[in-house]
From TrEMBL:
Homotrimer. The gene is rraA. It comes from the Bacteria. This is 4-hydroxy-4-methyl-2-oxoglutarate aldolase. Transmembrane segments: none annotated. It catalyses: oxaloacetate + H(+) = pyruvate + CO2; 4-hydroxy-4-methyl-2-oxoglutarate = 2 pyruvate. Pfam families: RraA-like (PF03737). Its EC number is 4.1.1.112, 4.1.3.17. InterPro entries: RraA, RraA/RraA-like, RraA/RraA-like_sf. Belongs to the class II aldolase/RraA-like family.
Amino acid sequence: MTFATADLIDDFEAELQSCETQFRQFGGLQVFSGRISTIRCFRDNGLVKKILNSPGEGRVLVVDGGDSLASALCGDLIAKAAVDNGWSGLVINGVVRDTVTLATLRLGVKALGSNPKKSAKDGAGEVDVPVSFGGVDFRPGAWLYSDHDGIVVADRELPV
């Protein structure tokens, strides 16, 4: 897969939202895209684990963790499950852990930072609801494109 988000903006600006959040790259895939699935949770990764252990079919999971830096919403075991189940990437409005291992996985992972602390595992939150951060509305079924420059979202799959 080759595309540049800057080129997508040049060609499809009227159709795209560009995320203003300055995420860090943690995954082994630096460029990734896919249809969006979403989770809204706060300091609890039970739903993240459950969803990433289901068939991904090339999708990107967008997790709105409420900007919390207190505990990781994804680590190496959950990310490995995502790879094994065919997910393309993760965008986490929160933090991850096990960053050295994340960098070895064939998975796009963007997050605010890292924290070794585990999160709760109760499964509290919502799945496949619209979430918003960084000036972007992430809606289930829309398309996300991510590279070194940032993240853009379109209502349809773009020719890349």
